[in-house]
Structures are given as structure tokens and as C-alpha cells.
């Protein structure tokens, strides 16, 4: 997605997480390890779901999509950071920066939409089990996923085009390890009121409405589970939602403060740490959160590894 250059700035400087040279090797090692673990974990979930016919259900379709998005999330920023540390450079081209921002916004919104779709899936499965097949038909879910990708692309493209029209003449230094939407607005010498308005209105709605959808879904789920007479039945029902709820808490507790506060009400260090949490840590942890308490996923992974070992003999 090549965008034209509208100012004298042809590249940006990514300061990263530390300006101290002696810490760069440690940061490189930590982020390389997190990237490899996160990428491998998410790809294994996709392969396990794809190779096990018992997991070809709507719930696991959403999970495989979430793993794909998380893998892309990690790949959108961490490799560039590692290359910069390895080559002792901090620069990224203007078009590369806008491309990176586009994919970061796109994938963050897709995470948001997929978590909402998964919450609705659990709501239907627990509150309307007899109508699950009717309410969650394959065509309905395909339309839902397609709409999610379309809306996420449109939202990301809106912010990228609005950013491309801005001038950057005073500074080209971004105090993060990637091209953050809010950070770019802070260093622009153009009028950014339209950009900030779109973040608050469009961005706020596109985060708030899905979050309210998740909240309403879980209110109904909790009410339905509390009516279950047996304690074992309640535990079983809650266990099917615990992994998803954990990921929801991780995601919204980190991303909301950054993207709903474009006026920079936080310190650089706080925002940088928060961005690491939702850009790297959360996508890395998601595969483990979903696998640790999911017997079906554990079984699928065992089958996958057994198949690989057998084929290697």
C-alpha cells in the first residue's frame, strides 16, 4: 500500500524500548524469543484445528482466525524491531511506517471483532443450545467473518489516508518500537483535529460497541449458568468461557487506554509498556490460554505432533 509523500520527512526514527546500547542485546533476545514462541503457538493452533475434523466447528473457526490475526500482529512490528537492533539503525521509511500503522490498526480491530463473535458464539451455545445449529449456520458465520474483515479494513484505511495527508516538518522521532497512530499525530505539524475526531468517534464506537456486545453476552451467560441446578454443570459451563474471558480482559485492559486517549494523557514509558502488552505479550499468550484448559485442543495438538513424528520416521 504505497502512499505519497506530502512533506520533507521521508523516514521516521523509532526509538525502541531503550536508548542504552548495553541493553539492546538483551531486548533483542527477549523479543526474538517472544516472537518465536508466539508465532509457533499461533501457527500450531491453526494447523491443529485444520488437521482435526472434530474441530471443524464454528467455535474453532473463530479461534483459528484469532490465531491468524495474532500471528500477523506479531509479524507486523517485531521483525522490523529486531532488524533495527541487529543493524544498529532506528529508521523506517514514511511509506513503511504508514503501512505498519495500517496493519496494526487493522489487526487490533479484527481482534476486537473476533472476541465479540466468540462471545456471541458462547452465548448461543449456552443460552440457546437447541437453536445453535439454526442461529450459527455456516452461511451466517461466513457473512459475519467477511463483514468483520471488511469493516476492519475500512476503519484502518480511513486512519491511514487521514494520516497520509499530514505534514511532518518539526520532528520525525517516534518514542516507540513501531509506528503508533497516536504517536504520529503528536509529532505532526499539521492540523490533526480531524484525525483525533475520527479516533474518538469512529474508533471509540468500533471498540465500545463490540465491548458492550461482549458484556451483554456474558450477562446472559452468567444468568443462564446460575439457573443450572448442579455445581458440576455450572463448572462445565463456565470452563467453556474462562479462556475467552481471560483473553478479553487482557485485550481490553491494554488497548483501550492507548487508542481512546489521543490527547496523550499518559507518559511515554507507560504507553510504551502498554503497547508491548497488547502488541506482543497478549498475542503470544493467547495460544497457551486457549490450550491449557481445552481438552479438545490438547488432543488435536497431540495428534498433530504424533502425525509429524510418524511421518518423519
Task: Report on this structure.
This protein has helices at about 25-50, 60-85, 95-125, 130-135, 140-165, 180-185, 195-225, 230-260, 270-290, 295-310, and strands at about 10-15, 90-95, 175. It is mainly alpha-helical. The protein has a three-stranded mixed β-sheet with strand order 2-1-3. Mean pLDDT is about 85; it is low at about 1-5.
Q: Any idea what the radius of gyration is?
A: 21 Å
C-alpha termini separation: 44 Å
User: Order of SSEs, N→C?
Assistant: EHHEHHHEHHHHH
Question: Strands of the largest sheet, in order across it?
Answer: 2-1-3
Amount of helix? over 70%
Q: Biggest β-sheet, characterized?
A: 3 strands, mixed
**Overall number of strands:** 3
Give the class from helix and strand content and strand pairing: mainly alpha
Shape annotation: globular
What amount of the residues lies in strands? under 5%
Number of helices: 10
Residue-averaged pLDDT: 83
Low-confidence stretches: 2-7
Quickly list its features.
313 residues, 10 helices, 75% helix, mainly alpha
Q: How do the strands and helices of this protein lay out in sequence?
A:
Elements: E1 11-14, H1 24-51, H2 58-87, E2 91-93, H3 94-127, H4 132-135, H5 138-164, E3 173-174, H6 181-187, H7 193-226, H8 231-259, H9 268-292, H10 295-311
Parallel strand pairs: 1-3
Antiparallel strand pairs: 1-2
Helix pairs in contact: 1-2, 1-9, 1-10, 2-3, 2-9, 3-5, 3-7, 3-8, 5-7, 7-8, 8-9
What is the structure about, briefly put?
By secondary structure, this protein is mostly helical. A 3-stranded mixed sheet has the order 2-1-3.
Amino acid at each position: 500500500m504505497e502512499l505519497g509523500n506530502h512533506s520533507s520527512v521521508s523516514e521516521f526514527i523509532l526509538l525502541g524500548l531503550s536508548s542504552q546500547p548495553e541493553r539492546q542485546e538483551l531486548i533483542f533476545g527477549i523479543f526474538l524469543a517472544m516472537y518465536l514462541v508466539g508465532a509457533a503457538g499461533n501457527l500450531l493452533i491453526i494447523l491443529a484445528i485444520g488437521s482435526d475434523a472434530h474441530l471443524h466447528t464454528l467455535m474453532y473457526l473463530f479461534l483459528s482466525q484469532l490465531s491468524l490475526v495474532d500471528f500477523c500482529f506479531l509479524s507486523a512490528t517485531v521483525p522490523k524491531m529486531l532488524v533495527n537492533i541487529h543493524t544498529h539503525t532506528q529508521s523506517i521509511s514514511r511509506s513503511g511506517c504508514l503501512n505498519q500503522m495500517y496493519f496494526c490498526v487493522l489487526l487490533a480491530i479484527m481482534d476486537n471483532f473476533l472476541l465479540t463473535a466468540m462471545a456471541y458464539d458462547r452465548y448461543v451455545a449456552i443460552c440457546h443450545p437447541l437453536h445453535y445449529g439454526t442461529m450459527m449456520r455456516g452461511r451466517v458465520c461466513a457473512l459475519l467473518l467477511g463483514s468483520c474483515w471488511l469493516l476492519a479494513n475500512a476503519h484502518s484505511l480511513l486512519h491511514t489516508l487521514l494520516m497520509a495527508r499530514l505534514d511532518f516538518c518539526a520532528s520525525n522521532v517516534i518514542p516507540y518500537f513501531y509506528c503508533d497512530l497516536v504517536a504520529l499525530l503528536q509529532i505532526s505539524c499539521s492540523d490533526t483535529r480531524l484525525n483525533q475526531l475520527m479516533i474518538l468517534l469512529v474508533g471509540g464506537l468500533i471498540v465500545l460497541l463490540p465491548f458492550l456486545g461482549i458484556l451483554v453476552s456474558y450477562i446472559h451467560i452468567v444468568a443462564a449458568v446460575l439457573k443450572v441446578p448442579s455445581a458440576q454443570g455450572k463448572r462445565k459451563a463456565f470452563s467453556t468461557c474462562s479462556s475467552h474471558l481471560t483473553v478479553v480482559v487482557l485485550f481490553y485492559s491494554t488497548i483501550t487506554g492507548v487508542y481512546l486517549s489521543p490527547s496523550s494523557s499518559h507518559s511515554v514509558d507507560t504507553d510504551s509498556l502498554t503497547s508491548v502488552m497488547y502488541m506482543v505479550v497478549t498475542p503470544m499468550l493467547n495460544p497457551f490460554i486457549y490450550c491449557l484448559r481445552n481438552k479438545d485442543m490438547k488432543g488435536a495438538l497431540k495428534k498433530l505432533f504424533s502425525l509429524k513424528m510418524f511421518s518423519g520416521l
